[in-house]
Protein: Methylthioribose-1-phosphate isomerase
Organism: Cyclotella atomus
Amino acid sequence: MSNDSSNTLRSLIYNLDTTTTPPKATLSVLDQLLLPHNTAYIPIHTVSDAWTVIRTMQIRGAPLIAIVAVLGLAVDLTSNADTVSSLQNKSVDEIKQVIGEKMEYLKTSRPTAVNLFNAMEELSNIIIMDTSLDTREALLEKLTSHASYMLERDVSDNKLIGSHGADDILANRESDVKVQVITICNTGSLATAGWGTALGVARELCERGRMDGIACLETRPYNQGSRLTAYEILVEKMPNPTLLCDSMTSSFLANKVNPSNTVCIVGADRVCANGDTANKIGTFQLAIIAKEFGVDFYVASPFTTLDVKLASGKQIEIEERPAGELLESSCAPKDMRCWNPGFDVTPARYITGIITEKGVLRRSEDGTFDVKEFVEKHS
Ligand code: MRU
C-alpha cells in the first residue's frame, strides 16, 4: 500500500510492505519550514521523530498532525529495529502497554488541535481495547491496516468536505456567478493527507468553474498563508490568486471585490458544542470583518474536529508559541516582550456554517449551533 496524492502536493510519503508478517511501514514527511523555496522530505523512523516534526512545525495543520502521529506509531512498531527487538519477547498485554505509552507521548506534542487526541483514542479503541488481538502479529497487522485506513479516509473525507461546502456556498447563487474566496493559514494538501479542508472547498469551486479569485492572508506571525497557501494556490493554478497582509482584509473587501459574491472559508482545530471554533490566530478578526461586510463565513473541518466534550471556546487550550518566533518574523528589538498565541477562538455567532464530510451544519432557528445533535445524528 502506498499513499498516492499524485494530483496534489504530497505532505507525506507512506508505504506499507504487506509481503512480510507483520507488515512493515515506512514514512517520510515534507519539511514545511523549507517551503516554498526548497522541497525536502524528512524520514520518520520513531515515535520520537514524529513528535519532533509535529512540535517544531515541520509538519502542521490539524488533520496532518493526527495522521503523522498515527503513521509514526505504525512505523516505529514495525520498522524501527530497536522497538521491534524490544517487543520480541513481550506479551500482547505488555506490547499494548508500550503502544499506550507511545500514544500518551505523541499527545504532548501540540495541544490545540483535537484531531490528534481523537486519532489516538480511535486507534486505542481499535488496538488496545480489542481483546481478540491475542498475538503480536495480529496486533501489528491491525495497527498498520487501521493506520492505512485512516490515511485514505482523510483524503476521501476532504473531498466530501469540498463538495458539501461548494454545494452550500453555491446554493443561493445564480449559476453564472463566480465566487471570490478569502482564506487564512494553510488548510490544503499540506495541512492534511491530501486535498485539504477549507482549501479543498476552494479547489472544488475551482473545478466547477465557479471561482472568480482567491485571496490568502499572510497569517502573521508564522506566515502559513504566504509560505504555504500562496504556494499551493499557484501550484493548483487557481484563478486570480492574491496575497494579503492580515491587516489588508477590510480594505480588500471595501475596494477590490464585491462582498456579496465573496465568501470566507477557514479551517478549524477544534469546534465546541456551541459552535465556537479555535483556528489559527487572526481567524477571529477575519470573522468580525466578514460580518461587517455581510460576507458568509464558513468553517470547514473533518467531523473529528468537532469536540462536543467542550461546551464553549472558553475551555479550549490555546497553544502559546515561543516569543522568538514573533520577534524573528518582525523587525522588533530582540529584547522586546511578546505574547504569541498560535490560535484564537471565533465565537459561533460569527459563523455561517460548519462544513464537514457528513454535511453542513447551519444555525438553528434561534441562531445557535447544535453541534452535539449533529454529532449524535452522524456518529
Ligand atoms: O499552527 P498550525 O499551522 O498547525 O495551524 C493550522 C491551522 O490553524 C489550520 O487552519 C487548521 O489546523 C486546519 S488545517 C486543515
